[in-house]
Amino acid sequence: MLELFHHFWEKGKYLFNFLSRETGDLQSLQSFADLSLSHYLWRGSNYVMWTNSSEMYRCSSSSLDIKTVPLRICIIGVMKRLFKISRSLLVTYYAYMLEYRAELLLWALSGSLPFILMGVWTEAAQQADFGLSSIEFARYFLAVYLVRQLTVVWVIWDFEREIVDGKLSFRLLQPLDPVWHHIWSHVGERFARLPFIFGLVALFFCLYPSAFWLPSLGTLGLFTIASVCAFALTFLIQYTLAMFAFWTEKASSIQEVVFLVNLFLSGAIAPLELFPPEIRSIAFWTPFPYIINFPASILTGLKVDITQNFAVIFGWMVVLAIVNRWLWRKGLRQYSGMGA
Fold first, then answer.
1. pTM metric for this prediction
2. pLDDT tens-digit profile of 273-292?
């Protein structure tokens, strides 16, 4: 049994090396091909096998039970493997995104809607009392711009193209869920985008020095955590909608409808404090206020219930993750490799 298992693993490594030559994703595919089955446990009817690097041990199930393997060794092995995969993906996609620096600058500039709305609301604040001063409006919409740049997601379009073109077939051959490719491509792009974001923020303060403020370290820490959670929530929403690409070629059309609702209820157009109480209470039961309004309110010092907001975010993340995995399993049965 062990010899047969080892034979199939060697054939699998040869397949990954072949795919890495035939596709453009050379570095990441070769990284997966070089990964061993290190630190995995497998139990057949008669034997227990523990592989560690190139060494392989086989013992009778009567003399060694799987429970006798130290849990610490298993956890350390899994963490090392996850770290190696994550590092390979991050370096690969970061280098890939650096090839499109001009495009990243254009994308950073294209998200300037908050600055347009800032001009509208700061002018309106000088004519009437909205509960926020013109300076507070300027800071809020600057925070909105930052949050939108840090949480932008495009996974539904990539996944839809993979389904239609049949490129998902290559992902399914790898010993890794395809979602990790999308996650690390977004993270790599975010690191490549940061210099442009900081440059535009510095330009904003040069043009509008009266709006300058320096948040405390605690506020920056909470803002960072809230932004990461907002990105995860946005990704889960869009990736769950992307699962409908198994049944329709235009799953991105659903995203366009959700985007309109998100634009209104997330606080991107105006702080939710300005909304009527009835609409505000309904909005807080949806995931959208926690994508923009929550992190932006933390950064600008607006009153917000941090514990309750984080609890709602994690609740929505759990629900979306469950729905996503269910749709993924159902969708794979529909997948026929179109265009492959």
1. 0.76
2. 888 888 888 899 999 999 99
